[in-house]
Design goal:
Elements lengths: L11 E6 L3 H11 L4 E7 L12 E4 L4 H11 L4 E4 L6 H14 L3 E4 L12 E4 L2 H7 L6 E4 L18 E6 L11 E5 L6 H10 L4 E5 L8 H9 L3 E4 L10 E2 L2 H14 L1 H7 L4
Helix pairs in contact: 1-7, 2-3, 5-6, 7-8
The structure holds NADP nicotinamide-adenine-dinucleotide phosphate.
NADP nicotinamide-adenine-dinucleotide phosphate binds next to β2, α2 and α3.
Length: 272
Amino acid sequence: MSVHGPAPGSRTHVLVLGGTTEARRLAESLAGDRGVRVTTSLAGRVSAPRLPPGDVRVGGFGGPDGLAAWVREHGVDALVDATHPFAATMSRNAAGAAASARVPLLALRRPGWTARDGDRWHSVASLAEAAVLLPSLGERVFLTTGRTGLGAFAGADLDALWFLVRSVDAPEPPHPRRMRVLLDRGPFGLAGERELVRRHRVDVLVTKDSGGDATAPKLTAAREAGIPVVVVRRPPVPEGVPVAGTPDEAVAWVRRLYAEGPGDAAASGASG
Ligand code: NAP
């Protein structure tokens, strides 16, 4: 694939599709790079997001065509999809837009979690599958999958269960009938997670396989308490898109891009 690149001597314009800690770290690193101009795009879901350095734009683009048009209009040379591992629609849109606007695309994805000795994990493909499994595992559920998708747990067949729902912003219906909402944003420490499990007599945890350190202590707290964890698997990264596991790897990919020319970086990927 031939791709467009920056004019000689001009700064490489990198559009980071954000909403994660890694996206912010990447923008922080790139903002200090004189060869790069960085713009971060946020979906606008969170009422008071932590803003990264560089330019920031907020709100959807209007599908892959809208994103491709934005990329062309704003002279974007490279796209980094640093959205959350579960933001599958945006990742698909990024792949489509990168192909049609002919700019290189990298996916920045923190590695998923792996089970350790003593873990009682149940891997499921979706929130709906988690909901089907729950009544066989417990009655007092710590639900940490975010406020969107709570409708999967709103069915009458789960009315006997009680939910502790933790999210950044308040959930809207449909949601579980019997629930308590805990508005909070990570990182979460182990002592606090232990205390939540103890105080609310939690007997099952539901999580996405988000990966990273910021929200991992709940897994340790569950292991210590001997309670099962329902882990929702990640959607795959769109085919053919190279993946970086850390912001540093993504920075190296961007630097290669303007050192070698975007065609080389697009073809070689970040971590092979
Ligand atoms: P999604 O389902 O993949 O995307 C839905 C739509 O939201 C997209 O089609 C796009 O609208 C818009 N969008 C998503 N990310 C965007 C971005 N960075 N900039 C501009 N528009 C964006 O996404 P989601 O799961 O709702 O997540 C939304 C945002 O929250 C993402 O930025 C993600 O990184 C962050 N987040 C998600 C989760 C999660 O569990 N899903 C957790 C933490 C943070 P258009 O089609 O109109 O462009």
